[in-house]
Amino acid sequence: MGDSNENGERQYHNTNSAYVLPNDAREQDRLDTQAAAIVEMLGGAPFLAPFEGLKNASKAVDVGCGTGVATVQIANKIPSAKVYGLDISPVPPAVQKIAPGNAAWAIGNVLDVDNKESEGEACQEIFAPSGLDYVFGRMLFLGLNDWSRYFSIASRALKSGGIIEHQDLDWAFYRVASSECLSDKWEWYQAVVSGLKKAGLSTRSGSGAAQLMAEAGLEVIGTHTFEFSFVPSTKTPNSQAMGRYVQAKLLPNYPELLRKILSDSGASEEEIKRLSEQCLRDIVSEEGIHQKYTVTIARKP
Length: 301
Ligand SMILES: C[S@@+](CC[C@H](N)C(=O)[O-])C[C@H]1O[C@@H](n2cnc3c(N)ncnc32)[C@H](O)[C@@H]1O
What we know:
It comes from Uncinocarpus reesii (strain UAMH 1704). This protein is an alpha/beta fold.
């Protein structure tokens, strides 16, 4: 997979997923940098689930695994398990090459696992009822447009005692060390939220997970919230790397991301340009401005 095609355009998946971001080499580099910043934000570990209970696990999945960085970490943590990395786009061959032998890769849309025609045998095998010890999903908010269905699929596929860990963002902007929401009054923000809603995407994939997991029959055993900083602040020392990553690698993607979301909801070129300028000004308007990142962990009774 190259960085762009011969016209210099970014490369995207060609599946029925609602996912709006590219899948090229530049995107893979962004995802790996983001993964490292998340580990720092969480205090040094990529996962917060109780792994001590997973010592004899036999099967796990990293849903929407991207470059496979977390899949490899899970495979190293639970060597007894076959650990699948599932994504709508292929994992880079270089990662597949260095991954431990208990990692396995599958291509498919997690929301289509019951559709035997469109999804292959690997998906059927991964989500067979009561077979999984651990389901991990991180930063899937721009890809999944039916969260109730997602947690029901995961719940059905987990063994009794199996664990699900979901890490995701709420798509709103807050003042540092407070719950004061800054974005509700921004014009461009309202336009983007309405575009996301039209695409069936949620702006509360982080904080909304616990309730949806409970509705899917899972017992929530922990929620932890972190500040995913857009501008580094000494008040959020664990989010310094995050702020630097956002400045260097996430914000350059914003104009294209906003263009996709806003043009799908019918905004004119001029309108998109005006709203994008507002956005790029507002989201770096003060130190420590952040989105809320929630880690939710639940167990199948
Ligand atoms: C923002 S990336 C996060 C990647 C990885 N979880 C991480 O944290 O590094 C979201 C990933 O989810 C994948 N994705 C989006 N919709 C999906 C779907 N319906 N089924 C499976 N994967 C999906 C995308 O292709 C992308 O690789």
